[in-house]
């Protein structure tokens, strides 16, 4: 195989299952059997009564530039080219799994993969991050947004399938997409913004048009997530609304949540048993959380878990626990720049507070960045596992 030099981790799976570039898609379409799930910690965190040795753990942006092997594989590669090659995408997804004791893999892709397929011309600049060449400037530009050509996203499902096979049931596979508001922000700002002035102009000046675009993104996102589960084998879904905190809760509830409801309802209609984690960054106020908690499709909750920030209030935590939903989070990633002492102390405080529910997944409050040190990341994981086990033992003894 062309990439055999770089596919160090995947190699065993490819050889064993005789997967090639040519037969991968056909195999995925005809054989959806996956290895038996032996590590069920993440899936169990969505149920109250499953057995429990410790809380599961994974980290947002766990595959990325802080890993030397990520830098190596990306050295001469364009970001989206890497995403579009299922073998490379799977290899990168597996890089953190290979070396850390973590319970989930999140597929190497981006929240901009979908808008790219919807007609946005996006490049990933090594310094600036995503840059959109044909951002939405006038209302008429909305007409440029189109439904993705189904072929254009098949590579994501191929990468998921390959990764799920390679995980051998030892970790849970997470699929994801950006939330309509965050994707819309990129579409109008054209890059990561500081002030979000264009987003706000659209939202408050062209409210109807903005809502139209949000609904459009929501519908396509739902289909994209359904396919990640049914075509690719994703076992859990996370929705990233990274820019949710840029507008007040009152506007988030009125203008943004209706499009999220479309996304969630359409997804749950097709995938009622797949746990879905919502990350509305900096919108962890009780009003917004309660709105999500009240959302159901029949008996099925539309949101199964919440990725929470480091400053979430006790009031919100209690509401989530009382509603039998899962908590994920919430260590400030900056703590990993600090001394071992502060890291251990903050991990201990986090576990004391959040492991009071059985439905808990250890994570950071935001993603790892290129300047994180691998050994500090390892310490965070080891310490979290140690403290989680200790907490569990203490609970049993008390
Ligand atoms: O391990 C993983 O998490 C890999 C999969 C992943 C995910 C879940 C990537 C790969 N990106 C994302 C989500 C994503 N992308 C979000 C939501 C989560 C968040 O809030 O961080 C956002 C806002 C983006 C947009 C994006 N992609 C940016 C700008 C925002 C930022 O943080 O600066 C940038 C720089 C990217 C590039 C990107 N995406 C993923 C990686 C590993 C990288 C870095 C590429 C590189 O440095 O070479």
TrEMBL record:
Residues 56-65, 174-190 form the Uroporphyrinogen decarboxylase (URO-D) domain. PANTHER family: METHYLTETRAHYDROFOLATE:HOMOCYSTEINE METHYLTRANSFERASE RELATED (PTHR21091), UROPORPHYRINOGEN DECARBOXYLASE (PTHR21091:SF169). InterPro entries: Uroporphyrinogen_deCO2ase_HemE, Uroporphyrinogen_deCOase. Keywords: Cytoplasm, Decarboxylase, Lyase, Porphyrin biosynthesis. Belongs to the uroporphyrinogen decarboxylase family. Pfam families: URO-D. It catalyses: uroporphyrinogen III + 4 H(+) = coproporphyrinogen III + 4 CO2. GO terms for biological process: heme biosynthetic process. It is an enzyme of class 4 (lyase). Its EC number is 4.1.1.37. GO terms for cellular component: cytosol. Transmembrane segments: none annotated. GO terms for molecular function: uroporphyrinogen decarboxylase activity. Pathway: Porphyrin-containing compound metabolism; protoporphyrin-IX biosynthesis; coproporphyrinogen-III from 5-aminolevulinate: step 4/4. This is Uroporphyrinogen decarboxylase.
């Amino acid at each position: 195989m062309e990439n055999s030099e770089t596919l160090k981790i995947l190699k065993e799976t490819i050889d064993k299952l005789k997967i090639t570039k040519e037969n991968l898609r056909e195999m995925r379409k005809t054989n959806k059997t996956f290895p038996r799930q032996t590590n069920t910690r993440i899936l169990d965190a969505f149920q109250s009564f499953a057995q429990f040795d410790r809380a599961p753990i994974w980290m947002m942006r766990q595959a990325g530039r802080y890993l030397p092997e990520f830098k190596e594989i990306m050295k001469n590669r364009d970001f989206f080219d890497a995403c579009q090659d299922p073998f490379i995408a799977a290899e990168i997804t597996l890089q953190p799994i290979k070396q850390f004791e973590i319970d989930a893999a999140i597929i190497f892709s981006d929240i901009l993969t979908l808008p790219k397929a919807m007609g946005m011309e996006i490049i990933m600049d090594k310094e600036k991050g995503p840059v959109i060449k044909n951002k939405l400037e006038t209302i008429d530009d909305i007409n440029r947004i189109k439904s993705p050509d189904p072929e254009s996203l098949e590579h994501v499902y191929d990468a998921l399938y390959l990764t799920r096979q390679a995980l051998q049931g030892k970790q849970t596979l997470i699929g994801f997409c950006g939330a309509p508001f965050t994707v819309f922000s990129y579409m109008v700002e054209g890059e990561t913004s500081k002030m979000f002035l264009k987003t706000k102009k659209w939202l408050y000046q062209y409210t109807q048009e903005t809502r139209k675009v949000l609904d459009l993104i929501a519908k396509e996102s739902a289909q994209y997530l359904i396919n990640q589960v049914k075509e690719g084998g994703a076992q859990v879904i996370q929705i990233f609304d990274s820019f949710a905190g840029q507008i007040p809760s009152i506007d988030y509830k009125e203008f943004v949540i209706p499009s999220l409801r479309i996304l969630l309802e359409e997804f749950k209609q097709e995938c009622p048993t797949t746990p879905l984690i919502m990350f509305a960054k900096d919108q962890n106020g009780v009003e917004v959380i309660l709105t999500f908690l009240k959302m159901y499709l029949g008996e099925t909750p539309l949101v199964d878990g919440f990725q929470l920030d480091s400053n979430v209030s006790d009031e919100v935590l209690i509401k989530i626990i009382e509603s039998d939903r899962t908590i994920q989070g919430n260590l400030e990633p900056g703590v990993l720049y600090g001394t071992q002492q502060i890291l251990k102390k903050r991990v201990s405080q986090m576990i004391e507070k959040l492991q009071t529910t059985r439905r808990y997944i250890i994570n950071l409050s935001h993603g790892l960045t290129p300047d994180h040190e691998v050994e500090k990341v390892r310490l965070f994981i080891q310490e979290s596992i140690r403290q989680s086990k200790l907490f569990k033992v203490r609970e049993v003894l008390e």
